[in-house]
Specification:
GO terms for molecular function: calcium ion binding; calcium-dependent phospholipid binding; phosphatidylserine binding. Keywords: Annexin, Calcium, Calcium/phospholipid-binding, Cytoplasm, Repeat. It comes from Suricata suricatta. InterPro entries: Annexin (IPR001464), Annexin_repeat (IPR018502), Annexin_repeat_CS (IPR018252), Annexin_sf (IPR037104), ANX6 (IPR002393). By secondary structure, the chain is mainly α. The chain has four domains: 22-90, Annexin (Annexin V, domain 1, Orthogonal Bundle), CATH 1.10.220; 94-163, Annexin (Annexin V, domain 1, Orthogonal Bundle), CATH 1.10.220; 173-255, Annexin (Annexin V, domain 1, Orthogonal Bundle), CATH 1.10.220.10; 257-326, Annexin V, domain 1 (Orthogonal Bundle), CATH 1.10.220.10. The protein has 19 helices and no strands. It has helices at residues 22-33, 40-48, 52-66, 70-77, 80-90, 93-105, 112-119, 124-138, 142-149, 152-161, 173-188, 194-210, 213-227, 231-238, 241-269, 276-286, 291-302, 306-313, 316-326.
């Protein structure tokens, strides 16, 4: 599939609501929650049609008008999947991501897929904001949390990504050839003596975690010229476990980020059950960034629209809210 052109326009499905009046919206939400049984449809219609920045203003107005916390009131009125979706939409994006990372590390097992999905796809600015939010909300640095919850090479990849220190510039052709050479060596020498393998793995990690997206695209092209193989295919074949998953996610994100998320959304709804958490997390976190692009990739690859997939897989108010975020049929 064609890659988005350099500087392609990424577009979200949710924008600032015109003629926005936070006081009026706060009042409407208060009314929707007053008395016995709340008007869930009114709540979800209002919240899904405002931008995140506007939702923050509504929270402020609500507090000054009623001396109450809107999040707490919403929490007491809605539950289950709908609550997870609506409350997620109400959080500032960096705090929302920080919370998802925290949840992925809570309890007995670690949810590596979520850690990878977030850390491998966010921009430098987004990562830095997440780190600040994490510290503010949980009084611990994200790096420390990752350190105590993951291990080995996988841990080093995540910590590297969590610095938000990826280069931002263009490509350097000579460097790209060298980088492709390192990639070719590491992916071919799975059977070489282990001494140089560790340092090569570290160099490969540095390339994937710190080079700019534009530069990496060139590296992947040089890799194909050099080996006749696609770098993603080769990683899948030669590596295993969380390290493989992390590297594959970075490569897919560099090649075509909206397609990466389209695939994840498709998988969250494929088969018998629905993975509501992944579905919710991606719909919320991409709603103002590139959800329209994700929709386009989805229908091109799967021959059905994201709208249709959601309709066939969820129900009730949760379905209505998801379709409102989706923003239309393709």
């Amino acid at each position: 599939m064609a890659k988005p052109a350099q500087g392609a326009k990424y577009r979200g499905s949710i924008h600032d609501f015109p003629d926005f009046d936070p006081g009026q919206d706060a009042e409407a939400l208060y009314t929707a929650m007053k008395g016995f049984g709340s008007d869930k449809e009114a709540i979800l219609e209002l919240i899904t049609s405002r931008s995140n920045k506007q939702r923050q203003e509504i929270c402020q107005s609500y507090k000054s008008l009623y001396g109450k916390d809107l999040m707490a009131d919403l929490k007491s009125e809605i539950s289950g999947d709908l609550a997870r979706l609506i409350l997620g939409l109400m959080m500032p994006p960096a705090h929302y991501d920080a919370k998802q990372l925290k949840k992925a590390m809570e309890g007995a097992g670690t949810d590596e897929k979520t850690l990878i999905e977030i850390l491998a796809t966010r921009t430098n600015a987004e990562i830095r904001a997440i780190c600040e939010a994490y510290k503010e909300d949980y009084h611990k640095s994200l790096e420390d949390a990752l350190s105590s919850d993951t291990s080995g090479h996988f841990k080093r990849i995540l910590i590297s990504l969590a610095t938000g220190n990826r280069e931002e510039g263009g490509e350097d052709r000579d460097q790209a050839r060298e980088d492709a050479q390192v990639a070719a060596e590491i992916l071919e020498i799975a059977d070489k003596p282990s001494g140089d393998k560790t340092s090569l793995e570290t160099r490969f990690m540095t390339i994937l975690c710190t080079r700019s997206y534009q530069h990496l695209r060139r590296v992947f092209q040089e890799f194909v010229k050099m080996t006749n193989y696609d770098v993603e295919h080769t990683i899948k074949k030669e590596m295993s476990g969380d390290v493989r998953d992390a590297f594959v996610a970075i490569v897919q994100s560099v090649k075509n980020k909206p397609l990466f998320f389209a695939d994840k959304l498709y998988k969250s709804m494929k088969g018998a059950g629905t993975d509501e958490k992944t579905l919710t997390r991606i719909m919320i976190s991409r709603s103002e960034i590139d959800l329209l692009n994700i929709r386009r990739e989805f229908i091109e690859k799967y021959d059905k629209s994201l709208h249709q997939a959601i309709e066939g897989d969820t129900s009730g108010d949760f379905l209505k809210a998801l379709l409102a975020i989706c923003g239309g049929e393709d």
